[in-house]
Amino acid sequence: MIILIIFAVLIILGTPIGFSIGLAGLAGLIDIGGDKFLAVGPGKIFNGLNIFPFLAMPFFILAGEIMNQTGITDRLVKLSQVLVGRFRGGLAHSNMLASVFFAGLTGSATADAAAFGRTLVPAMVKEGYKRDYACAVTAAGSIIGPTIPPSGLMVVYGSLMGVSIGGLFAAGILPGLIICAVCMGVIAIGGKRENLPKAQRGATLGEIWSTFVSSLTALMMPVIILGGILGGIVTPTEAASIAVAYALFLGVFIYRTLSFAILYDMLVRTARITGVIFVIIAFASILGWWMSFEKIPQAIASSVLQMSDNKYAVIAIIIGLLLMVGMVMDITAILIILGPVLVPLTANIGLDPIHAGIIFILALNISLMTPPVGACLFILSSVTGEKIERISIKLFPFLIAEVLVLFLFAFWEDATMFFPRFLGFA
Fold first, then answer.
1. Which helix (H) or strand (E) holds 14?
2. Long-range CB contacts (< 8 A, 24+ apart) of 121-126?
3. What is the pLDDT at residue 27?
4. Which residues contact 75 (CB under 8 A, 6 or more apart)?
5. Which residue in 191, 140, 145 sits closest to 402, CA to CA?
6. Residue 146 and residue 175: Cα distance in Å, rounded?
7. How far apart are the C-alpha atoms of 331 and 265, rounded to whole Å?
8. What DSSP state is assigned to residue 125?
9. Residue 255 DSSP one-character state
10. pLDDT tens for residues 143-185?
């Protein structure tokens, strides 16, 4: 218990999450066998990172950076606008649909929030949308990124829990599309209440066709990534490296928007983002080993099953725990710390490992837009200057809708497992 108290105190004091986890883990090693037991630490750190699929993460992050720089994001936004811009709140609908297109490129909610916070939010404000509402729409759509593959969070989950990453990718397609549809429904229902502007005219078939053709090179990216992985042609790591090569080809030879200086900056940003994630993973391996040594996962599983052995009640408890912890803690750290605790519990109630993984992914993705530490909220606030509390108020209907989608796929296994079974992953 003292180790968990140390961890909580460090978090409250504002210590970076990776170092909080690491110091708590080191305290756990000392608690087990004294200072001589610290020699175990380096080996645990190495083993925590020595997982081949982790190589996919920096490649996917770099591919997203290149896509932003080459203007592919702008092309996808324009395509979304000509498809749904004719409706009331057309730019809001375009924002949501663009998140689906963008998801197939980077699989990052924060990249989505940053890119659209700089482009679509100002465009929406210029067209008459309130800035807090524009930010809320962007935040709600941003979690589609790590739900529809490729998804960095799925790579981490699959690697640590021994679950097929391709299967997780397949299972994420339908929930991501449903989240988009439900959020567009929220926009349509609240259109009059929010006084969303109407489009002056719809795009012609010629405009739609020309925009589609200009976006074709961008749309090929998710086809290459998903087609290769789901078709069993390449591994997620190989697909990520191919995505980088394709993005570089577009940037250098097709759009000619990349230079060595720009590429250097993108490599630095990729290294920083990857470094933060890997520090968390490395130190969490120590804390996770201590928890396993103390048999904490078994104790928690036993306690939950004593409360109820009903499958749906246990799922609801897991979801509630993930959502609550996600409000105050980094989602990668949550996955690494609570994954080994809660995944055995899902096995005890008979959940398919891929189905259990999607429950974790959806719940943690929703945490990205919940205050007080939702990463997407902080990014949008810093990019646009809007207050987090104002964004959160406008975000509430979207949050409720996405939580309902989470419970739908948590309780309806056949819907979650449709694509994995169809593609032979389950």
1. none
2. 121/380, 121/383, 121/384, 122/384, 123/91, 124/91, 124/92, 124/95
3. 83
4. 214, 215, 218
5. 140
6. 11
7. 26
8. H
9. S
10. 998 898 878 888 889 888 889 988 999 999 999 999 999 999 9
Residues 130-140 pLDDT 10s: 999 999 999 99
Whether pLDDT at 372 is above 70: no
Nearest to 66 by CA among 172, 218, 187: 218
DSSP class per residue in 126-138: HTT--HHHHHHHH
Report d(CA 104, CA 116) in Å as an integer: 15
Determine contact, residues 165/155, Cβ cutoff 8 Å: yes
Q: Which of 254, 253, 245, 252 is nearest to 224 (CA)?
A: 245
- Of the CA atoms within 13 Å of residue 387, those in its CB half-sphere come to 3
What count of residues does the chain have?
A: 426
Q: Which residue type, as a one-letter code, is found at position 171? A: A
Start-to-end Cα distance in the chain: 39
Name the pLDDT band for 50 (thresholds 50, 70, 90).
Answer: confident
Q: Of 79, 131, 136, 84, whose CA–CA distance to 113 is shortest?
A: 136
Tokens describing residue 164: 């097929």
Q: Which residues contact 28 (CB under 8 A, 6 or more apart)?
A: 3, 286, 287, 290, 291, 293, 294
C-beta of residue 17 within 8 angstroms of C-beta of residue 11:
yes
Report how far residue 169's alpha carbon sits from residue 154's, in angstroms, rounded to the nearest whole number.
Answer: 7
The token pair at 45 is: 């750190």
Distance between CA 132 and CA 134 in Å, rounded? 5
Cα–chain-centroid distance for residue 272? 18
Residue 186: the pLDDT is: 94
- ∠ CA 244-364-291 to the nearest 5 degrees? 105
Cα separation, 229 vs 233, whole angstroms:
6
Task: Quote the pTM value.
Answer: 0.80
- Find out whether 405 and 344 touch, Cβ atoms under 8 Å: no
